[in-house]
Amino acid sequence: MQSGKDGTSLSIAVLGAGMSGLAAVAKLKEAGYSKIDLFEKSDGVGGTWRDNTYPGCGCDVPSHLYSYSFDLNPDWDYKWSLQPQILQYFEDFADKFGVRPHCHFNTEITDCSYDEASRTWTLTKADGTTHTADILISGLGQLNIPSIPDFKGKDSFGGASFHSARWDHSVDLKGKTVCVIGNGPSAVQFLPEIQKQVGKLINFQRSPAWCRPRGQRKYTEADKRAFDKQRWRINWYRWRIRAFADFGFTAFHQGENGLAKSMKKMCLKHLEDQVKDPEMRALLTPDFEPGCKRILISDDYYPALIQPNVEVIRQGVKEITPRGVVGDDGVEHACDVIIYATGFQSTEFLTPMQVHGREGVSLNEVWKDGAEAYKGVAVPGFPNFFLLYGPNTNLGHNSIILMVERQLEYVIQAIGRIAAKEVAALDVKPEAMKVYNDKLQADLGRTVWAGDCASWYKTESGKVTNNWSGKTTEYAAIMRKFDPDSWQVIPAD
User: Fold this and answer.
1) Backbone dihedral angles phi then psi of residue 272, each to the nearest 5 degrees
2) What is the H or E stretch that residue 426 is in?
3) Is the peptide bond prior to 430 cis by the omega test (within 30 degrees of 0)?
4) 481 to each of 27, 247, 477, 485, how far by Cα in Å?
5) For residues 242 and 201, what is the distance between their CA atoms, to the nearest angstrom?
6) CA distances from 46 to 18, 42, 53, 55, 196 (A)
7) Cα 301 vs. chain centroid, distance in angstroms?
8) What residue ranges define each of the domains in the chain, with the CATH number in brackets?
9) What pairing do the DSSP bridges indicate for beta strands 103-104 and 109-115?
10) Are 25 and 97 in contact (CB under 8 A)?
């Protein structure tokens, strides 16, 4: 093997054409790398914003913060953008930064295996062909595989059924009786939209969720011109949103701190303002602290739930029958359509793709007790393999794009050492991984995410695998400079 590889000869494979993968290609090109191949199983870019097309789909992070710092957009229509405009932003980004020539669409990767002799990764495609790369970067994220519980009789239902993340637009809901199972972030957006057209809507809620006001705002043309002509306004606006969100992070600490009390008070007032019936309010009041599950953001969710054609069933689902859904109490609720708003396989990172590192070790086996990674980007035994939006890098209070940009800065520094020095591969040290994750889990144990509720933030055993334990500024500080002492150098032959 050649000792050291420059930006021209180093080959890099990127997985996924969503928010992380697109940014990776753009930043790698900026750093001088040219042999970049991005593999995407679908036919286009956008990731979750391409997949999720349900009515009312939008982002719960303000638009100006849910965009790259190096590609600011003055033309957002709303403070909280809707799916079509977000998707358009990423499609335009792919064109503007020349990402598309690097893309291999309709190409699913089923296996990635590291070869210790050649110090390379072999990617196996669904059609059986392979691709070899020096560096492997996963941009697959945490919210790409819908999760539908294995309800008894699920396949027996005689009507239409689908997951909200794979919305079937061919199904006409007008005048139909629709059962919605779940009440998470997608349900809170589409439920008010479909309530207006269905005959009856039955919403199964195993447990209610906390909800705070959205405060949607439409930007005027004058607003857009000001953002465009005076770019400091966007930067100042972004900084203000980010700083306020980071300041509010202590609301997610366990205990009766002031911000936690304020958050709970705000959510309770929102419920009281919009739901006047005390019995309905009691039905919709959670029995856990705000933040233990993802806090919903909506101005029209509660008003939809109290409409005459809506029935809220505060139960789980016992089984599915040919006619409808049976709750935990054994009562069958007949319906024409079932919509599963049951979230994603968020703790099963990279599944169903297989990843094999040194000595053929399976990443699934390494992660059998819950996924973890050094700084969210690397796992011992998997050299030259980097994760974006990996374990414990999700946020409950701020924009994930802030995190991914910091990850890319760190990863590109690491790749630079491989490209410029007599280094064939870098493998994070197990001891560095242990020290980092021991502290991380200790910090997470003091947050509401470790509280007594079931959420997509943690495994069934209770290990929080998704969320970062602090502020975005704290994460930025540990990612600012590559730390070579935490890495094992595998020299070139």
Assistant:
1) -65, -35
2) strand 423-428
3) no
4) 16, 24, 8, 12
5) 37
6) 5, 10, 12, 17, 29
7) 22
8) 11-143+348-491 (3.50.50.60), 154-210+255-288+290-340 (3.50.50.60)
9) unpaired
10) yes
- Phi (first) and psi of residue 146, to 5 degrees: -60, 145
**Where are the strands (E) in 187-331, listed by range?**
200-204, 211-212, 296-297, 310-313, 317-320, 324-327
- What is the residue type of 66? Y
Q: Around Cβ 80, how many Cβ atoms within 10 Å? A: 19
Rounded CA-CA distance 70/369 in Å is: 37
Say if residues 152 and 320 touch (Cβ distance below 8 Å).
yes
Contact 415, 12 (CB under 8 A): yes
d(Cα 8, Cα 15) in Å, to the nearest integer?
20
Q: Are 242 and 398 in contact (CB under 8 A)?
A: yes
**141 neighbors 19 (Cβ within 8 angstroms):** yes
Bridge-based pairing of strands 354-356 and 109-115 is parallel
Structure-token pair, residue 210: 């906390």
Task: List C-alpha distances in Å: 303 to 18, 126, 207, 279.
Answer: 33, 46, 18, 15
User: pTM to 2 decimals?
Assistant: 0.94
45: Cα separation from own chain's centroid: 16
Burial profile 453-491: b = 16 or more Cβ within 10 angstroms, e = fewer: bebbbbbeeebbbbbbbbbbeebeeebeebbeebbebbe
User: How does DSSP classify residue 152?
Assistant: B
Mean pLDDT, each 10-residue run in order, the chain (493 residues): 57 97 98 97 96 96 95 96 98 98 98 96 98 97 83 97 97 98 95 98 95 94 94 92 89 75 93 97 92 90 98 97 98 98 77 92 93 97 97 91 97 93 88 97 90 79 90 96 96 75
CA distances, 457 to each of 117, 324, 345, 427, 460 (Å) = 38, 30, 10, 27, 10
Q: And the tokens for 341? A: 């708003």
- Residues 74, 224: contact at Cβ < 8 Å? yes
Residue 214 tokens read as 């959205």
